[in-house]
Amino acid sequence: MGDLPGIVVTGASGRMGQMLIETVRQSDRARLAGAVERQGHDWIGQDLGTCLGTGELGVTVTDDPARAFDGAQAVLDFTAPAATVAFARTAARAGAAHVIGTTGFGDEDLVAIADAAKETAIVRAGNMSLGVNLLTMLVRKVAAALDEDYDIEVVEAHHNRKVDAPSGTALMLGEAAAGGRGVDLSEVSDRGRDGITGARRKGDIGFAVIRGGGIVGEHEVIFAGPGERITLRHVADDRALFARGALRAALWAQGREPGEYSMLDVLGL
């Protein structure tokens, strides 16, 4: 086990953090090397297994990421933008690959992550699933094949605890559609419709957001043209698929040159 890549999970107590932990534990290609939580959390200083109710694992939950990352080969991080930016700097100093599933970044956050990627491999994706990344490729191809007579709408649905909107995956799909048309998403994105908005502007890419219950993740891209509609859709039934994708990315990143990578790179697409 000591020869396997050591993986640290941040945000260990969260739903995604726990799923990442379980995925690493079940893998025969990696070992769980650390677990990080925010300062003041009840889990700090306790054995992770005790916190999870699975029996002792020999991994103590810490609020010191530098200590947790030291000697680790990769960090799996599905937390929040500010935390992820700090983790990126710490992972870079430790020489650990950083797999980022966090979404909702601002421009300054992305600049900071790009700076950290000068020192280590960073895999960042709005979605870690194979299906969504295949969907992204299809969206780009369809958008490139159709002209502006086909309106593009991205519709996404998630659970009621998700804090950012549109989702990182929706924005990734929007970027793919814009890329297929050779335009900048920021110039054609339409994210808010309320009241008397006027007619839809030709060439815009619209976004609609649904939040409710325990929806894991649903994404749909609609190309609505004269007399026909083309719909591309992905439904996630189990967030374990994101954890499996993240672990795959962490293993793929071993030995890679510093830089920013996507799941398309990991999947060879």
Automatic annotation (TrEMBL):
One of its GO terms (molecular function) is 4-hydroxy-tetrahydrodipicolinate reductase. This is 4-hydroxy-tetrahydrodipicolinate reductase. GO terms for cellular component: cytosol. Belongs to the DapB family. GO terms for biological process: diaminopimelate biosynthetic process; lysine biosynthetic process via diaminopimelate. Catalyzes the conversion of 4-hydroxy-tetrahydrodipicolinate (HTPA) to tetrahydrodipicolinate. Residues 7-128 form the Dihydrodipicolinate reductase N-terminal domain. PANTHER family: 4-HYDROXY-TETRAHYDRODIPICOLINATE REDUCTASE 1, CHLOROPLASTIC-RELATED, DIHYDRODIPICOLINATE REDUCTASE. It comes from Pseudooceanicola batsensis (strain ATCC BAA-863 / DSM 15984 / KCTC 12145 / HTCC2597) (Oceanicola batsensis).
